[in-house]
C-alpha cells in the first residue's frame, strides 16, 4: 500500500476500550467515517463480570456520554455520588476500636450543586454497563465500523497517511491513526514515542459486595499505610471495593478461599452498612505510573491510557482519557469543517496543547497523593492530617477540589459541557 492508495476511512482507531469507542461515537457525530479495531472479542468485553471494575465518572464525562446518546442506557444503572468521605489512617472496621478518625475531609454535592435538580459529584458506573451502552450505540445509531477480535500488528506512516496492518494481514489506510490501545500501546511504540514512569509496589484488589443497609450515595476512601481502601456506592445496596496492598499480600488475599477473604475484607469494611457478602469474583491490578513523552507524532495521536496510565487513587484515569476524547473530537471536527487534512501537524498540535499539560499535572498529582498517604512516617502523617483538616475547613478549597475532580475546570471542550458536535 502506497501514499497514492485511497484512504479506507477518515480516521482509524486502534483499540476499542472505553476511550476508543467513545471517540468513535464522537467523530461519527461530527460526520467523520471511522474504523475501530480491537484485539478482544465482544463476547469477552461484554460478559457480566468482564473485569470487575466500576468507575467514578466525573459529572462532565457523564455529560459527554449523554450528548452522545447514551443517557437512556446509563442513567438507570449510574449511582450518583452525593458525598465523599476521605479519612486518614483508620478503616471503618476500626471504628469500633476507638471512634472515627478526626482527620477527615468531607465533600458534599449540595455545596456546589444544591437542590434536587443539581448534578451529583460524579457517578459510579460498572464497566459492564458502560461497555454495553457503547456497543449498542455503535451498532444501532452510528456508521462506525468495528473490527473485533482483531489486533493491529503494524503501523507505518508517510506524507499523506497511515497504513495499518491487521493481525489477519489485511491493510487499511487513513489520513490519521489514533492509538486508544491502552498502556502497552503498539501505536505509541511504533510511532517512537517513549514513556516515563515507575511501578508502584502495590496491587489493587477489586471486588463487588452486597450489603444490608443503604449507602446513601456516600463514597468512602480510607488512607491506610499500605494504600487506599475505597468503598464506592453502586446502584442498589451494593458497593465496589478497591483495596490496595503490597504485591505479596494481594497475591495471598486473591488466592484465599472466599470465606477467609471475606473475613479479611470485613475487618477493614466494618459493619456500618450491615452484613456484607461478596458478589462475583475478585480481580487484581498491579499499579504503575506511565506518561507518554508526547501525545502526537506524524499522522498519529494518542488518547486515553496509551498516553497516560495513572494511579487510581483519585479515580481519574478514565476521566482523563475521556477529556482527551472530547478535545480531540472537537479539534478534528473543526478541522473537517474547514476542509483541513486531519493529520496536519497544526491540527494535531492544537490537540496536544489542549491536553498534555493537564494530563502530566494530574499524573504527578496522583503520584504525589499516593506518596503522601501511603506511608506511616510520623511527620508526613501530621502534615497530611493538617492538610485534610485545613481543606475541610476552607469552603473555597473544598469547592475547588470538587469542581476539578468533576472534570469541569479549565477550558472545557463542547462535549464535556454536554453539547453535541455538529456534523
Ligand atoms: C483498580 C482500578 C480502578 C480504576 N478506577 C477508576 C475510576 O474510578 N475512574 C477513572 O476515571 N479511572 C479509573 N481507572 C482507570 C481506568 O481503568 C483506565 O484509565 C481506563 O480503563 C483506560 O481506558 P482506555 O480505553 O484508554 O484503555 P483500555 O481500557 O486499556 O483499552 C485498550 C483497548 O485496546 C485494545 N488493544 C490493545 N492493543 C491492541 C492492538 N494492538 N490492536 C487492537 N486493539 C488493541 C484492548 O483490547 C483494549 O480493549 C481505574 C484503574 C484501575 C486499575
Walk me through this protein's architecture.
The chain has 423 residues and is α+β, with helices and mostly antiparallel strands. It folds into two domains: 11-58 and 127-197 and 290-372, FAD/NAD(P)-binding domain (3-Layer(bba) Sandwich); 76-124 and 200-287, D-Amino Acid Oxidase, Chain A, domain 2, CATH 3.30.9.10. Helices cover 35% and strands 27% of the residues. The protein is built from twelve helices and 21 strands. It has helices at residues 18-29, 42-45, 59-67, 71-74, 127-141, 186-190, 247-255, 258-269, 317-337, 345-373, 378-393, 395-405; strands at 11-14, 34-37, 54-58, 79-81, 83-88, 104-108, 122-126, 145-147, 152-157, 162-166, 171-174, 176-179, 195-211, 218-224, 227-234, 238-246, 276-278, 283-292, 296-297, 300-302, 308-309. Strands 5, 6, 13, 14, 15, 16, 17, 18 and 21 form a nine-stranded mixed sheet that branches. A six-stranded mixed sheet has the order 8-2-1-12-20-19. Helix 1 (18-29) packs parallel to helix 9 and helix 9 runs antiparallel to helix 10 (345-373). The radius of gyration is 22 Å and the shape is globular. Bound molecules: flavin-adenine dinucleotide (FAD). Flavin-adenine dinucleotide binds at residues 14-20, 37-40, 53, 55-56, 151-152, 180-182, 186, 204, 206, 242, 285, 304-305, 312, 315-319, 321.
* pLDDT < 50 stretches: 94-100
Query: What is the name of the CATH class of the largest domain?
Result: Alpha Beta
> Which overall shape is indicated by the principal axes computed on the Cα atoms?
globular
Tally of discrete structural domains: 2
